[in-house]
Amino acid sequence: MNYQAILEEIEKEIQALFSEGKVADYIPALAKVDPNQFIMSVRLFDGTSFGVGDVNSKFSIQSISKVFTFTLALHQYGRDLYQRVGHEPSGDPFNSLVQLEYENGIPRNPFINAGAIVTTDTLVSIHKKYTFKFILDFIKKVANDDTITYDKDIYKSELENGFKNFALINMIKSYNNIHNKIDTVINTYFKQCSIMMSTSQLAQSMQYIANHGVNPLTNERLISISKAKRTSSLMLTCGHYDASGDFAYKVGLPGKSGVGGGIVAIVPQKMSICVYSPKLNAQGNSLIGTKALELFTSKTGLSIF
Amino acid sequence: MNYQAILEEIEKEIQALFSEGKVADYIPALAKVDPNQFIMSVRLFDGTSFGVGDVNSKFSIQSISKVFTFTLALHQYGRDLYQRVGHEPSGDPFNSLVQLEYENGIPRNPFINAGAIVTTDTLVSIHKKYTFKFILDFIKKVANDDTITYDKDIYKSELENGFKNFALINMIKSYNNIHNKIDTVINTYFKQCSIMMSTSQLAQSMQYIANHGVNPLTNERLISISKAKRTSSLMLTCGHYDASGDFAYKVGLPGKSGVGGGIVAIVPQKMSICVYSPKLNAQGNSLIGTKALELFTSKTGLSIF
Amino acid sequence: MNYQAILEEIEKEIQALFSEGKVADYIPALAKVDPNQFIMSVRLFDGTSFGVGDVNSKFSIQSISKVFTFTLALHQYGRDLYQRVGHEPSGDPFNSLVQLEYENGIPRNPFINAGAIVTTDTLVSIHKKYTFKFILDFIKKVANDDTITYDKDIYKSELENGFKNFALINMIKSYNNIHNKIDTVINTYFKQCSIMMSTSQLAQSMQYIANHGVNPLTNERLISISKAKRTSSLMLTCGHYDASGDFAYKVGLPGKSGVGGGIVAIVPQKMSICVYSPKLNAQGNSLIGTKALELFTSKTGLSIF
Amino acid sequence: MNYQAILEEIEKEIQALFSEGKVADYIPALAKVDPNQFIMSVRLFDGTSFGVGDVNSKFSIQSISKVFTFTLALHQYGRDLYQRVGHEPSGDPFNSLVQLEYENGIPRNPFINAGAIVTTDTLVSIHKKYTFKFILDFIKKVANDDTITYDKDIYKSELENGFKNFALINMIKSYNNIHNKIDTVINTYFKQCSIMMSTSQLAQSMQYIANHGVNPLTNERLISISKAKRTSSLMLTCGHYDASGDFAYKVGLPGKSGVGGGIVAIVPQKMSICVYSPKLNAQGNSLIGTKALELFTSKTGLSIF
């Protein structure tokens, strides 16, 4: 299939949507990006890449980082992890806190903030003050790029404005489901959200999941086949907050969005994809990114269904 | 692959689980089945079938009927249907009614009771008093069997004990999202739940979804490719109530369970499956049926992820 | 104190509010009343009465009937009643159904619809098909008027449009907290809501509660002192749905409102009051009626606090 | 009436209840009190006092402090305060956080933790770092005792274990309903909860509320008549968390409990009462204290209803 031609078609078709959506503005550092960007990368297992827009331009990965920390926690804890975080879709945002109260501090899944904070905590139990370094080293390895780092302004902005996340972590701690100091965990969490990557790097970084646990570039197995499949499953059912069902319905691929405007997706055993466009829809996912992926599976027939 | 051998292996491995779970007892007519049954059917597009147990023994399909009515409603209304029923996972059972209140009578998806009642109502708007006949005729066609009918005792039992469903339909009606008389809609709904089918018939009846809308037996297109894929997607994200995420995570196939003990599943573009075992887990899905499907994808590697 | 002069002052002061609020329109029969009415009656234990407006004009008492059925049920069951209905304020309307689910079909208190349906059911268990007659006879006695009856059009309208109440009763039945046939209970409930009374009759009918259980007109004890006080307490904490706290805060008297536009209130050991004005505030209580009672306690200093 | 004799009767009758209930143990400093204490003080406006037990023994006042901070905030802001905190009962504990989400960070009333944190914040806006001194000075004045102070161990314990309160304040801050630094507000809040007082001091300190705003000892007006009555109303409808309705129903007096085991109550225009017994019922109120007050109003007929 001529993927490059398809990406270029998509780029044309989404132009009409630039008037819609709204860039995340809950922290000043995110609000200042150019709203009318569209970048998309596709990467096959043999290393062939396709792209439109500036595929080396970096943006804040935000919740896409949850895929990496979940992989690491699942690798280290296996099914013991499920006692501290579930794997069910969370319903709607309104439920986030009541769900925690109702279910005694066990977050519904690792791809909502509450759940990602718990998976970060499980890593802090092992790697202590080196946890962020450990996470970043893993990302550098799977993205095949040693230069990746986090943005200090965004990190500081998150710390100063992240009252809802402070509320969540204190709530979970009150149920004894945070085992380390709140400051250590939340600092690590905010740093991982502030990591800057390009669509090219993110597409590369998802190869190990698409390829059932093995990075095709190095042939290194990072997680077991079964855990790679389960990560994919979780991306499908829980990857887009309360629009997860809609994404599965319209796009039909495992994916994970970030409020910074990026979305990663995989076609199992075939390829990985990353799209970036910072304006968000009402559910906090990239509006044009979601549409672009819908066009991609329509044009290629690559939905998993 | 030797599917028959795999089914026989599964049959052996699940024996140890017969002590767990509990047959549905909310209506007397369901409570009286033999609890220790296990039946499983697999059907390929060329008509080859595999099975263990009495694959012609019939049971109440219950919520599996929601797949057929959704297909019919989606076929007739297209995206207009989404204004009356969503396609997001519903979170947990606790939320069912509060969700209806919070979202003004729009059920979260067509595979929870509230949503299926609305899809039945959309069919009643068209087919009036012939709606149940219309639904049953469709099922006879896709199952390739003219003898299928519903069980009058179970139907009567549902009517007499279905207080929660009466609560739901009245609630939705109060938001003007039921357009026909409550009695007509609920009678049709309870009849479709009381239809009796065997694993062999149900496996056959799911072929058109697995085969992207075309019944491979007759080559008749019943719904568009896109609608078949969307039905599959919905089965994956919403097919097992508040254990949908867990089913996707462990089994990795689109499926739909019924409280009667049946589960259907599909491998897109490959095959359809039906398993029956009446004891249920805490979420109301067949306990052994779920385990059998997990073993099936482990042994065959046929997960969609 | 010159109560007549105070009522006339209040009548003047509330004129400015006639532009606000909205008559109940959930059933056609209620929507057709003249919106700009204001009637108020005060009655002392010696029979002296004061009034402004047409104190003999009748209106639908709606939820004010809940005071009578609660009194009757409390009289007959005593503290056993608390196992079927609580006496805590219900928070907000949003919670009505989720609260029932969360608390297994035990309504929070007898002054919300769910709770009043249960108290009616407890009376049906004793009085069977004569329950409505039994309730009406009690009201005739405490109001000292044999001509009181219900409005058949309003009753029919309730039956045809009361989907939320049908949802509630079915929900409660599913938890086995309705012991009689749904039709019998709901018909009785809708009839009691459709009773027509004037402010003069309602003020008289509340005398036994204000006078600690004894009708001062006849010296007949209808309930014990303790049960009369408890009814008053419930009127204070739960009498105005999710504006109960606000009513207690601003008016400072036990009261009960009905969606028909009436509010009854009592000054313990002193007098009873009824006000009528059909336009409602956002919480479904008479807007001008609430204000008039606030003015009344400000001017007389008769708050219980 | 012979109040001393009544108190002694009550003391005898409650002995049988010492086996029930459980001392608060969410912080170690509270868990170590002697569980089987019972102390009760009654104070009339002329200064006459009655008591059983060691009426000068001090305990942690905890949520009773909310009455003082609410009085101060109401005095300073008047009805503007209602834009930041409501005056409706909160329903049940389960709803605490969901209610905040649903109502955009406006706590239901000032006697739940969320609401008391907001009233403290309104005081911090005026008194800055002197806020705790300002609150303590007010308490010293109304209790007529300059030696009152807070317990540093309890304060430290609250700070170290108060994760739920940290969750609440961050949640409210995310809705911009906390105007000052979280640390300043929460430190002040925890200090006020850690104040130590005796039943004798607390009974004295409630005189100004019972006496419609004037301290009868000094004849100083502290708040207006209307604000004193409104504080009483709030104590009745919201003073005992999700057992507020039950307390109003059984005791029939405005009151406020603290998790330390104290309960204050007033008889409007007559007297103030304080009871202490540290074992709590399921709703977190003093089990024996509640029973003692129920006996008190039964024996004296002093319920407000």
TrEMBL record, chains A, B, C, D:
An example Gene Ontology molecular-function term: glutaminase activity
Entry EC number(s): 3.5.1.2
Keywords, ordered alphabetically: Acetylation, Hydrolase
Binding site for substrate: 63, 113, 158, 165, 189, 241, 259
Gene from which the chain derives: glsA
NCBIfam families named in the record: Gln_ase, PRK00971.1-2
Domain of life: Bacteria
Name of the protein in question: Glutaminase
InterPro entries: Beta-lactam/transpept-like (IPR012338), Glutaminase (IPR015868)
